[in-house]
Amino acid sequence: MTMTTGLGIYDPPSVILMYWKILLGVLEIILVLAVGASMPVLPGGETDYGNFRALPPQGLVERIQINSPLAAPVKEDASFYVVVDVSENVEYVYKNGQLIMKSPVSTGSASRYKIPYYTPLGRWKIISKESSSGEYGPYFLRLARWQEGGYVRTDIGLHGTNEPQFLGRPASHGCIRHDNRVITQLYKLLPVGTVVETVE
């Protein structure tokens, strides 16, 4: 303890502070695991953390997002172009500049779940086309997001649904859900490298 005239000034309780930091770290890990355990599992077996990335840049959910650079660049394919209007939950597919498909979709819901989910706005690219099942429908088209001068891999994608009654309104964890017949068409139609724009 150090003293000044008439006032006691104490050294910081560094040991107590250290234990508090450890305790908070453990609680944060438990919370991450608890949140992760309640999220859907993607076709590749990963936990679907990717849809959190549109949340405000603070708090736990921002720190657990998965954003990894692409191992190898995927060349853009300009023959097709997809626009998803997240405010209307409608998707437009263009081929050589001509509209060829318009379908209802479901994007992220801010109110359906305990945690708000959003579909981030921006430019994306299809980087893989995968078979899936269950809540993802028959196919999952994984997206990479344009960010800071390049595309980064995400766990957001275009996929089918086992809840077609919600198409046309927000209902997803951040991905873009389609009628299973539509995602089957898109799986056959859209090449890897197709650009997807999410707008409102």
TrEMBL record:
- SUPFAM superfamilies registered for this protein in UniProt: L,D-transpeptidase catalytic domain-like (SSF141523)
Pfam entry (one):
YkuD
Q: What species was this sequence derived from? A: candidate division CPR3 bacterium 4484_211
Task: Give the record's keywords alphabetically.
Answer: Cell shape, Cell wall biogenesis/degradation, Membrane, Peptidoglycan synthesis, Transferase, Transmembrane, Transmembrane helix
Q: Where is the L,D-TPase catalytic domain?
A: 80-199
Q: Which GO terms describe its molecular function?
A: peptidoglycan L,D-transpeptidase activity; transferase activity
Name of this chain's protein = L,D-TPase catalytic domain-containing protein
Under the heading InterPro entries, the entry gives: LD-transpeptidase, LD_TPept_cat_dom, Transpep_catalytic_dom
Q: Name the domain of life this protein comes from.
A: Bacteria
Instruction: Please give the start and end residues of each transmembrane region.
Output: 20-42
GO cellular component, as recorded: extracellular region
Where does the record place the catalytic residues?
Answer: 159 (proton donor/acceptor), 175 (nucleophile)
Specify the pathway. Cell wall biogenesis; peptidoglycan biosynthesis
The alphabetized list of GO BP terms reads: cell wall organization; peptidoglycan-protein cross-linking; regulation of cell shape
